[in-house]
């Protein structure tokens, strides 16, 4: 139940993994920008309005119990969501990788025998409890270096088994929790979207 049910029944999903950037404009009109790091995944989820309150009463009680102070893991792997983060490569097994904290690349210790290890837009998770990273360049089977969308936060390691595509789980807090409202007969909805923000405790 809980947050995962909200994801599985979402009517609209917005995904943001943009980095934090500071910009300044010179007197001559030129713009300068510098990355401020970060780039957590942020998910804005809208839940459909109008389902039967009796079907979701337990869900609402669970959500209100966890509120904004309990981290949970969410997945985008339910029927109808498989296309969002589906793996595009050709390797059927589990990749083992080596990486260095603070770098934007990792090294695969296995490889597909044809096609691609990863395609741009694929996601990869460093261990069952690690963060989720997005691949930003195609990785043909002849290549073992994978470029990621942000620097690696986890401590440097070798031989870490990874998850990919729909297997990946995002550790999140609910940073914006809407109120629920009742209307008509036995119908309910929420007065705004849920916002889930990635954490690394």
CATH C-level of the largest domain: Alpha Beta
Main structural class: mainly beta
β-strand percent reads 35-45%
CATH topology category name of the largest domain: Phosphorylase Kinase, domain 1
Helix content: under 10%
Number of beta-strand segments: 17
Shape verdict: globular
Q: Provide the CATH architecture of the largest domain.
A: 2-Layer Sandwich
The biggest beta sheet, please?
A: 6 strands, antiparallel
Q: Flag low-confidence runs.
A: none
Q: Number of domains in the coordinates?
A: 2
Give the oligomer, counting copies of the same chain as homo and different chains as hetero.
Answer: single chain
Strand order of the largest sheet: 10-9-13-6-7-12
Please provide the ordered H/E string of secondary-structure elements: HEEEEHEEEEEEEEEEEEE
Distance between the termini: 22 Å
Number of helices: 2
Q: Cα-atom Rg, whole angstroms?
A: 20 Å
- Mean pLDDT over the residues: 91
Structure notes:
It is a single chain. The protein has two domains: about 80 residues, Phosphorylase Kinase, domain 1 (2-Layer Sandwich); about 70 residues, Elongation Factor Tu (Ef-tu), domain 3, CATH 2.40.30. About 10% of the residues lie in helices and about 35% in strands. The protein is mostly beta strands and about 200 residues long. It is built from two helices and 17 strands. It is globular and about 60 Å long. The protein starts with a helix and ends with a strand. Strands 10-9-13-6-7-12 form a six-stranded antiparallel beta sheet, with no helix packed on it. Strands 1-4-17-14-5 form a five-stranded antiparallel beta sheet. A two-stranded antiparallel sheet has the order 2-3.
């Amino acid at each position: 139940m809980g947050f995962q049910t909200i994801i599985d029944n979402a009517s609209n999903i917005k995904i943001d993994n943009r980095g934090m950037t500071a910009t300044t404009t010179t007197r001559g009109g030129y713009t300068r920008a510098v990355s401020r790091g970060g780039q957590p995944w942020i998910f804005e989820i809208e839940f459909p309005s109008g389902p039967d309150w009796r079907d979701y009463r337990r869900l609402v009680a669970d959500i209100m119990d966890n509120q904004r102070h309990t981290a949970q893991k969410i997945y985008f792997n339910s029927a109808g969501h498989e296309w969002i983060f589906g793996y595009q490569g050709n390797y059927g097994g589990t990749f083992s990788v080596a990486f260095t904290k603070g770098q934007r690349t990792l090294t695969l210790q296995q490889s597909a025998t044809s096609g691609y290890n990863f395609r741009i837009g694929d996601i990869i998770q460093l261990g069952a409890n690690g963060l989720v990273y997005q691949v930003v360049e195609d990785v043909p089977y002849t290549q073992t270096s994978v470029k990621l969308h942000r620097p690696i936060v986890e401590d440097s390691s070798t031989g870490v088994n990874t998850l990919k595509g729909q297997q990946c789980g995002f550790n999140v807090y609910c940073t914006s929790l809407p109120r629920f409202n009742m209307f008509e007969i036995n119908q309910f909805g929420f007065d705004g979207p849920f916002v889930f923000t990635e954490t690394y405790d």
